[in-house]
Amino acid sequence: MVTKRHQDVVVTRGAIENDTISAVAAKYWAPFTKETHEKFDIKLIDTIYQNEMLKTQFNPRKIMMLEFSQYLEGYLWPNYKPEEASRAYNMSIVVMINEKFRERNLDSWAVFTRKPTHFSAFFRKVLEFSLDENELSPSEQSALLTFLVNAFGSLETPIVHNETKKLVSIEIWDGLLPAQREDMFKKHKKLRKLWEATVKRMSAENKFHREYLWKLIEKFKKTLKNFDGSEGEEEGEDPIDSIKYCERFIELLIDLESILQTRRFFNSVLHSSHLLTNCLLSPLIATEAGSLFFQLVQLLKFYARFEIDDLSGRQLTHKEVSEQHYQSVTRLQKAAFRFFKENMKEFYLLNISSVDTRRALQKQFGEMQHEEVYRFAEYLHLVPEFGDDAIEQAALLTRFPHKHLVETITLHCERRPNQLTQLNEKPLFPTEKVIWDENVVPYESYTGEGVLALDKLNLQFLTLHDYLLRNFNLFQLESTYEIRQDLEDVLFRMKPFQHETRDETVFAGWAKMALPIDHFQITEVAKPLVGEKAPAVVRAVVSVNIGRRHDIRQEWENLRRHDVCFLVACRSRRSAAGLKFDVRRPFAEQIEVLSVRGCDVEGMLDQDGHLLEEYTSYEKKAKIPGDLRKFRLLLDANQYRLDMEEANKVDIYDTFNLLVRRDSKTNNFKAVLQTIRDLLNTECVVPDWLTDVILGYGEPDSAHYSKLSSAVPELDFNDTFLSLDHVKESFPGYKVEVAESHEEKDVVPPFKLHFKDLDRRQDVEVKPGDLQTIVVTPLVRKKETPYSYCPRKNQVQFTPAQVEAIKSGMQPGLTMVVGPPGTGKTDVAVQIISNIYHNWPNQRTLIVTHSNQALNQLFEKIIALDVDERHLLRMGHGEESLETEKDFSRYGRVNYVLKERLELLNDVEKLAKALNVVGDVAYTCENAGYFFRFSVCRAYEEFTAKISTKGGVKLAEGIVAESFPFTKFFKDIPDLFSGNNTEDLKVAQSCWRHIELIFEKLDEFRAFELLRNGKDRTEYLLVWERGKEQS
């Protein structure tokens, strides 16, 4: 990329006070000198534009000074009159709006919204100036395109939307070929009626708007055509401004294609104009200066072919995309049969997969005559009709050269790789080519002036696939930026230099996050799976010397499975004599990075080369003598395939000389990218009520539970409320009633609340006066055990706002709880989790936080509530920081299950003795299950049959206590029964529930007997557990 960098962009207080702009602003428009302002002088605007903007090549420092002084708000727009405003006046407004967007001002259009009278006339002027080819310089033209980019990116602003929609309405189809319009009408029959109605409304007044984008594209083509790759070379410089104009124009087209509102009718215009063909055949795209232009064109090509129905916005399936492709190639073969039946038999008789590759199409049509290729393009409705007039034919052949026609047909008919397949074959780790590419990953010095070949996170997205894909790409590049910082820091510390006698790189420095590689070897390259190109797995072993420092040794030995490291091959650009590195100077000038490859740590190897499993860290660690350690690594299979396909004489996997690790807290990027990729491969990612909100369509609050038909009118709030008065205080404006079967004075928590206003979602008829009514029903929990047990309850008296957040969190839909520190967000979240756990005990709850500390705070409060600890699992790093003696990590939970299993089996053995059952019934969970079904259940059934009343016969007092078969098992409870049959029956039921719970747990733990190693047990734990927390 060729750029012009302005120095001293940061504006200091001293610069503001000493700058001439500040003095002029104080005299004419500064808000603090409002009472002494001089009269408006329109010539002043021209002077400022010429001297402070144009002559300085729109220096950001000068523009920033004008923005600080409120030049637009205080002088330009309040005095704007379209009929009097000069070109400099309009351009000044354009530049100031661009500056607001460069500074990421969220209210950039506010000055126009407050006074919208002349905005339409001003916007029209901007459009007219953007088509000018003579008076404006390339930098001014780029500024106008930047303004248009900002405008099309602000469609949520009404005054901007009203102007931009005129440029992308169906009227722009007036420039399409009639045959092309007919093709669109055949795909969408309703479009014909819409077009006919639009034609009737067309007027000469709207001609400018419907032809604007066509004219702008033609202007761009002329600019692109004038660049032959040699312009400016004699003077020793490249035409920077013209290249920047081309880059900015492609950015504008990408924005138009990536928003459904603008793409709907413009996409046909883009294809009809052959703009992609012009870009791909341009000399600029092959030059070093055009590297960014090339990347932008590839991004435009991606969105121009995006798998979506342009009119409905529906994402196309792979089958639908394939059918469209087959239709295009079939039409091409029919054209060959019609015009060249004798000469192209091989082409039209072969199957589609044999002729639809770029190579096959280029070869076939590249050898044909110019006129013959034109006939094909005409048959495909890509060019105007050839006609019979020789003069017109010559003009058309001049307008569409042979190479241009071949490329156009190829773009139209070539086999397009599936977007999902491309993503699955894409490496997750960045390489040296991406890490140090400033077009994609800019440095901190980036000021926002230039264009970047990046996706944008707009307010609207084409499809869910588009949303996830943009996030995938942007997060990958954000991670790449952090990785570059870490690598540069490590390499500066390691101080590499070229050995004087041996052809190798030696490190004169030291870094705790990097070690020189002693030996590296690829040990396994598995064959690809069916239907895949990359190897199934690529394993390698790396040997490093971890040194003598105990803390550093421990950090390297504690590398976990799936921790990410980087293999680096580097060398210094300096000799050992001049080995002085300066971190303030550009990194690339001092150290040359030959290759960077990411890898996953599979584990550390012992002396015999066996992998030390992760679970062994919870037992006794094997002590490995010496300082040399071997790690088994998993390389990126997709990247390995790409490396092997490149025809390089030097194998980069033999050149690595440094192993670099990163801080575990910031090194989770691969897991995030893998998750996004898995979501993209999933058919349904989010519920329907959330899809439109994510894509930016419809009302923003449409995902709130009050707008959903699936809202639950009756909920168990468990221990949320401390009293009935607390319920009344929590719902101001609601009428709170107690259920008919209960007295208000006797009502105590926990409560179940019935919201009458949500009954409408269940098709229940409710009187209008009862809509704001809540019916409170107190709940009586069944006693789960005869032993004394006091459940942990919430002690926080939640405010009405917090209760509404808890209610919303328990309902279907999206809930966002926002507030400053100390407002109880964590307590609210914990209560929501607890209530969901008790309302839907068979569902899983996943908690994801931005940091380990935040998760630990949540987890510690969840532990303090009435949630069974066997349903809690803490994943990710940071579990060691939990302020609890219990271990909630994966291996800690496995150990807890195994320990609990032994205790429960002891209880089973005790129960067998109480029932006088002989045999080893407590040997395994399976034996215990048989014992429960055939002995315990039979004993309880006999007991229930004995105490059941038949024919109204009253039971003798004490019969329950005498008949209960498990009294010996509960002999540790003094005075288990009182002699009152009614009370004794409740005790007997709680005893039976206690026994049932023992065998329920053993049934859950049975799998841990079958799974013999720690890895299998932890993986089963993830599938089995109902509650999961992850950082």
Structure explained in plain terms:
The radius of gyration is 37 Å and the shape is globular. It folds into six domains: 1-141; 166-225 and 242-316, no CATH class; 318-408, no CATH class; 469-576 and 587-681, no CATH class; 705-849, no CATH class; 894-1024, no CATH class. With 1031 residues, the protein is of the alpha+beta class. The protein has 41 helices and 14 strands. The strands form four sheets. A six-stranded antiparallel barrel has the order 3-4-7-6-5-8. Strands 9-11-12-10 form a four-stranded mixed sheet. A hairpin with a 6-residue loop joins strand 1 (496-498) and strand 2 (505-507). Residues 801-911 form the DNA2/NAM7 helicase helicase domain. Residues 21-417 form the RNA helicase aquarius N-terminal domain.
| Percent of residues in β-strands | 5-15%
Total domains, how many? 6
Q: Uncertain regions: pLDDT < 50 for 5+ in a row?
A: 1-11, 231-238, 1026-1031
Q: What summary fits the major beta sheet? A: 6 strands, antiparallel, barrel
Radius of gyration: 37 Å
Structural class: alpha+beta
Number of strands: 14
Percentage of helical residues?
A: 40-55%
Number of helices: 41
Distance between the termini: 39 Å
Sum up the overall morphology in one term. Answer: globular
Spatial order of the strands forming the largest sheet: 3-4-7-6-5-8
Q: On the 0-100 scale, what is the average pLDDT? A: 86
